[in-house]
């Protein structure tokens, strides 16, 4: 590790952020350690660029890229948001082309009011407005049986859309995922990189499995992540506590184990 750069990739809701309150206060000691030792923190979330940009600045990692909308897009370092390119409108068009008996059971963010988003997420009104500023994917709620849900996913796939299940929402996009974006970010680094990735939901599995060390954060609010092969080898570990508390303890332990810590003013 002496000649490798350490980067921490993290999901937000249910991982760095508390599932109910969206607070990261319990993770502040580890966040401060990352800042003090110039270790990159890459936010990787279903959230939009409009949501992540102010949070990234608040955490003190504006200089780091961020993975947005479940990996369907990327927010560049120091950017506030990305330009619209028509993908979001095309996703809605393709969803609307699906059989009415299935399409009517899916309510996407584009169909929700800000108040609907608040009710579904417990976000504040202002935060819900940012969550609706989508560019690369359409999350929503499916109201139907498991069989109908699977039929809807298959129909969407035939229309060129890929589905991912997060902690709350079923999300459709043209592809791209957190793991793919993580690999691209690592490939752009000047130095060799050691990666740590943390997540709590099925849409984090690729990210967790692609990292040098993956961490599963328990989340009793949903089914969590099934046992993964990497747990047998130790490449994937489980946090002892939920949400930001588990995130904090695990990141502190892993950074001390895998990083050669140097305060920012002592960087090479």
How are the strands ordered across the major sheet? 2-1-9-10-11
SSE arrangement, N to C: EHEHEEHHEHHEHEEHEHEHEH
Q: What is the residue-mean pLDDT, rounded to a whole number? A: 91
- CATH architecture type of the largest domain: 3-Layer(aba) Sandwich
CATH class of the largest domain: Alpha Beta
Count of alpha/pi helices: 11
Query: How many strand units?
Result: 11
Write down the domain tally: 2
The percentage helix is 25-40%
Rg (C-alpha, Å):
18 Å
Find the CATH superfamily of the largest domain. HAD superfamily/HAD-like
Q: What is the global morphology?
A: globular
**CATH fold field value of the largest domain:** Rossmann fold
The percentage of residues in β strands lies in 15-25%
Low-pLDDT parts are 263-268
Through-space gap between termini: 15 Å
Multimer state = single chain
Class computed from helices, strands and strand pairing: alpha/beta
Main sheet makeup:
5 strands, parallel
